[in-house]
Design brief:
The structure is a single chain. The protein has twelve helices and no strands. By secondary structure, it is mainly α. It is globular.
């Protein structure tokens, strides 16, 4: 079928826009790339330098303190199993990538979520953008990462941040908006400033919802590890990706189980934090 209507040049406009951003912003992205690469290397080297049994013991004690005996034992035996599978180095690389990406997503997402909660106009304008970000295929996030940061862990970290930030923005805004109006009005009646109302009333009451956003953000970051391996990320994702290329089903299965174990540990720990943040007397 011959089209008589000219095609909208979305691909050309996208290429030109990306080229312009790359040409004019390369000085910034290169600086950021160097610093982030240094952080990733430093954290990975530091964790690998410590005997694995010490890291495992500290992680098990921390999760025991956060989530109780069941979560602590899950962490202990899960990490010991990964060590036994000779996947400790890959596990550490994955943890560093997930932790850095999650931390950056929270630093960006929580303030933006607060802004959206306090500004209805901003929420109306940018809510469709969040919807689009959450429906785009995860592979799409690799496209802008490569021109800006090149192959490697930095591109993977950037793509993971962009992919995982929408939930914490949305749930932060939702949590603040759902604070009972009577409590907000009481704060106003007692002469509380906007900052006092936010930090002493709205954020504490919204904390369980915000922690649910932290949980979702961390899970999305972990879900990117295999896809990020396609652009040079290390860790368990690289093991899975290499096993696919080499048709080594056993090695891929081991790494996949490793990702599942990390996901369960991080999920249970963040859920326990969310439960502890919930005010007493609520379900």
């Amino acid at each position: 079928m011959d089209w008589t209507i000219p095609k909208f040049p979305l691909d050309t406009l996208s290429d030109e826009g990306l080229d312009w951003l790359t040409d004019h912003g390369s000085w910034l992205t290169r600086a950021v790339s160097r610093h982030v690469a240094d952080w990733i290397d430093a954290l990975t080297s530091a964790l690998v330098a410590v005997p694995p049994w010490i890291v495992i013991a500290v992680a098990a004690l921390a999760t025991w303190k956060i989530g109780g005996r069941r979560v602590g034992l899950l962490t202990l035996f899960g990490l010991l199993f990964l060590w036994n599978l000779r996947l400790w180095q890959a596990t550490v690389e994955t943890l560093v990538l997930v932790i850095l990406a999650t931390a950056a997503a929270l630093v960006i997402g929580i303030p933006v979520g607060i802004w959206f909660a306090l500004s209805r106009r901003a929420w109306r304008i940018f809510s469709p953008v969040l919807d689009m970000m959450q429906t785009l295929p995860s592979f799409v996030y690799l496209i802008p990462a490569l021109p800006f940061f090149g192959l490697g862990a930095v591109s993977a970290c950037f793509a993971t941040i962009v992919f995982s930030v929408p939930p914490v923005i949305r749930l932060t805004a939702l949590g603040i908006r759902n604070v009972p109006a009577e409590l907000v009005e009481a704060s106003d009646a007692f002469g509380g400033s906007s900052a006092q109302k936010l930090f002493k009333v709205q954020l504490p009451l919204a904390l369980p919802t915000i922690m649910a956003g932290v949980n979702q953000t961390m899970m999305l970051a972990l879900s990117m590890v295999v896809i990020a391996a396609m652009i040079g990320a290390g860790g368990l994702g690289r093991v899975v990706w290499q096993s696919i290329q080499r048709l080594e089903a056993g090695a891929g299965f081991e790494a996949g189980i490793g990702i599942v174990i990390l996901a369960v540990i991080l999920d249970r720990a963040t859920q326990a934090l969310a439960a502890r943040a919930r005010p007493h007397g609520t379900a």
